[in-house]
Amino acid sequence: MFWYSAGADEQGLGCTLWFDEVKYEKLGTIAYPRIILEDTLLTAPVGGLLDPGINGVIYNVDGVDRTLNVAKAYFTLSSLNESVATIGADGKIQAIAEGTAEIVVKLGSITQKKITLTVGKEFGPSTSAMVPTVPADSVISLFSNAYTNHPGIVWNTFWQFSNAKTEDIQVAGDDVKLYTDLNFVGIEFTKPTVDASDMTHFHMDIWTPEPTGAGQVFKIQLVDFGADGVFGNDDSFHELTFSSSTTPALASQEWIGLDIPLSDFSGLKSTGHLAQLVLSGDIPTVFVDNVYFYNKGGSGPAPTEPTTPAPTPSFTAGDVISVFSDAYTNISGTDFFPNWGQATVVSQVQIDGNNTLFYSGLNYQGIQLAGSQEISGMSHLHLDFWTASSTALNVYLISTGPVEAAYALTVPTSGWVSVDIPLTAFSPVNLSDIIQFKFDGNGDIYLDNLLWHK
Question: Residues 223-238: what's their mean pLDDT?
Fold first, then answer.
């Protein structure tokens, strides 16, 4: 494009201009093109969908580096191991199976860079977080496929001293934010700020592959910019800390729903101009979904039973031993109501055509397998559960002896919760000789997709 401008003279008359020798020339002063990548080492769970993080190209022009924000459509990506990862038509990387793949990024034939992607089954969740059930008119959503999200949110401000990297991925078709190398990360929503004056709670779902034992913490800070709605002057903030000993408790390799009354953020002078969310702690890898403010009173009466079935598990059938699930062939002869003197009332109910176990008035309840099960080749126990009334719920594996071990589930829920519990959590139970399950606690419990998988 050839562009020029000429102003009028003092009398307001135009100018007459002559041009000659208008041409493009290759002077040899543009050199050393370099593609800019956010990171050349990426990780993802099987099924994850990742943005490659291309941030433009640097060219050296007349001895000076200049950055061009080249549109992503100009780049060509290819996988050197398509059994592990492939490239979609939109240029995103799809993780297919466990392993490592090099992703080549090119701009024409001039320059290229490589991304090394490691895909691992245990790195990330295999099921999505539970779908929120709060009516949309009682929600201000920052991030959720279930709602229309607040505009203009920056999910990583890259503040000084923050090491956090952010990836947009998908888990079982659901959009999820993945933070790695997390020491702290700033999230801003200043254009516009959020008026949560009519909201009562803050919600966030998190999942981590990291250990969450004694000493491991995850922190959430909210910042309000005050009546003037701008940074400084009358700002206020408050930070909350979560660990394995808080309610809800942090746990590894399961979705945890954090439903926090806004009144718990007692340092906030108001919630009329919320502008920042800060996540921190010593858990470096965190998957985040369903981040929103909501009005609990405005959501109507809390549901007492699920209106939708549990999520359908996506494990390969050959990697599953199923006890109770419509998605797989179940082992035969299981007694779901052995007479152990319990007060629990057991039934099977249909939820949108899906068989579901219902424990009414739970004190304890057993499941007697028809024969001893060899599950030492499996790695996890999977189950989905839903309860609005329970305040304590444990699941047990029992081997001959009997030898039993319990695992505490986080209750109550605000929808279906899917958990994948490492079988190592049930030590010293003999995994070559499993004969029974047991649940104890209280309230009304809905259960589905009770199975082992690897």
Answer: 89
Quick check: is 110 in a domain? yes
Euclidean distance between CA atoms 410 and 415, whole angstroms: 12
- At 1, the pLDDT band (50, 70, 90 cuts) reads low
Over the stretch 116-130, which tens digit does the pLDDT of each residue have? 988 876 567 878 888
- Of 47-56, 65-74, 434-443, highest mean pLDDT: 434-443
State how far the Cα of 206 lies from the Cα of 287, in Å rounded to an integer: 5
Judge if 192 and 276 occupy the same domain: yes
In tens, the pLDDT along 81-101 reads 999 999 998 888 988 888 899
Number of domains in the chain: 3
Report the SS3 class of residue 93: strand
Q: Model confidence over 297-355: pLDDT tens digits? A: 764 455 778 888 999 998 999 999 999 999 999 999 999 999 888 889 999 999 888 99
E-only strand ranges, 126-209: 139-143, 165-171, 174-180, 184-188, 201-207
pTM: 0.51
What is the extent of the structural domain holding 187?
136-299
Roughly how many angstroms between the first and final C-alpha of the chain, as a whole number? 60
Give CA–CA dist 283/11, Å, rounded. Answer: 72
Report if residue 11 sits inside a domain.
no
Q: What is the mean pLDDT of residues 39-50?
A: 79
Query: Does residue 309 fall inside a structural domain?
Result: no
Task: Give, in order, the Cα–Cα distances in Å from 80 to each of 76, 96, 102, 112.
Answer: 13, 13, 5, 14
Same domain, 334 and 428: yes
- Final residue of a structural domain among 299, 328, 355: 299
Q: What is the CATH number for 254?
A: 2.60.120.430
The neighbour count for residue 269, using CB atoms within 10 Å, is 13
Q: Is the Cβ–Cβ distance between 204 and 221 less than 8 Å? A: no
What is residue 137's three-state secondary structure?
helix
Decide if 126 is inside a domain.
no
Q: Are residues 96 and 155 in the same domain?
A: no
Q: Does residue 173 share a domain with residue 88?
A: no
Same domain, 111 and 160: no
Mean pLDDT on 136-154: 94
CA distance 404 to 402: 6
Q: What share of the chain is helix, strand, coil (3-state, %, to 5)?
A: 5, 45, 50
Residues 188 and 276 in one domain: yes
Query: What is the rounded distance in angstroms from the CA atom of residue 91 to the CA atom of residue 89?
Result: 5
CATH assignment at residue 54: 2.60.40.1080
166-199, pLDDT tens digit by residue? Answer: 989 888 889 999 998 899 999 999 989 999 998 9
